[in-house]
Amino acid sequence: MTDTRCGFVALIGEPNAGKSTLLNRMVGAKVSIVTHKVQTTRARIRGVALEGDAQLVFVDTPGLFRPRRRLDRAMVAAAWGGAADADIVVLMVEAHRGVTAGVKAILESLNERTDNAKIALAINKIDKVPTEKLLALTKELNEAFDFMETFMISAEKGHGCEDLRAWLAKELPEGPWLYPEDQIADLPLRMIAAEMTREKLTLRLHQELPYQLTVETENWEERKDGSAKIDQLIYVMRDGHKGIVLGNKGETIKAVSKAAREELEEFLGRRVHLFLQVKVRPNWLEDAERYSEMGLDFKDGNA
Ligand SMILES: Nc1nc2c(ncn2[C@@H]2O[C@H](COP(=O)(O)OP(=O)(O)OP(=O)(O)O)[C@@H](O)[C@H]2O)c(=O)[nH]1
Ligand SMILES: [Mg+2]
């Protein structure tokens, strides 16, 4: 047997930095949902990639920000937990936003929050800025923190991503692979399906509403004809929210359901019957069961 390498690479950064986009690119499939809005990812999502003899287990994390609600605190705890468990931490910073107050706050706690991990910097969205700006930003960030390496990438367009992956593979510890060769994710299918619906809701609903709902897969039935019948519940906090999610004559939920079903069919490679139901639960944000369904630790949300 040849010497194999394997380990965890945590992707951390402010909300919207492009962590999920990078995870999906590294894995070569959409494992983690992406939207233009902040705080899309709520829990740690693993995606697996191979590079030569190395198996890279990428860990997408929720964005790091100043939490207010229980859910926010649980998300931020999950993100730092991902960094603490990693062999390599990649901090992603948006090229066009530069060293924000949020980035400064992350840099301040990065050393104490990681456990001997190698820490690299990935300046993302380089497609948005001229090269001169990148050099200045690289200098500024490396003066603020001792990064092992700096990469300039576009997670969306792919620039620099192969170099990053090759470097990560080289830096991972020697060890046996943790996953079978053909596995790319380890999120249960019912959770992936719920996330897809949440993505479509987030894209469609305005302002605060996406932050005040959660989606769960209630039932998954394999049918004899090879299709899957999937029932999902959308928890919202108020009657008014329910009306907005349904939309005029149900048009919003119909559109969401169609978009989520199509993506799910592509992901699974078979037909899906998706049924969405909206439930009003004013205090779901304080409901421990909702957190375990999301893959979060309820206790992490304690103030
Ligand atoms: N122009 C450009 N946009 C990008 C790039 N990478 C990501 N984006 C966009 O940035 C937005 C946020 O991307 P996500 O991958 O959801 O960001 P995230 O860091 O996972 O965000 P949270 O889950 O909210 O923490 C999306 O609209 C992406 O399409 C890039 O390299 N260039
Ligand atoms: Mg994300």
From TrEMBL:
GO terms for molecular function: GTP binding; GTPase activity; ribosomal small subunit binding; small ribosomal subunit rRNA binding. Residues 5-174 form the Era-type G domain. The keyword Transport does not apply. Residues 205-282 form the KH type-2 domain. GTP binds at residues 13-20, 60-64, 124-127. Keywords: Cell membrane, Cytoplasm, GTP-binding, Membrane, Nucleotide-binding, Ribosome biogenesis, RNA-binding, rRNA-binding. Residues 153-155 are annotated as: G5. It is found in: Cytoplasm; Cell membrane. SUPFAM superfamilies: P-loop containing nucleoside triphosphate hydrolases (SSF52540), Prokaryotic type KH domain (KH-domain type II) (SSF54814). Residues 60-63 are annotated as: G3. Monomer. This is GTPase Era. The lineage of its organism: Bacteria, Pseudomonadati, Pseudomonadota, Alphaproteobacteria, Rhodobacterales.
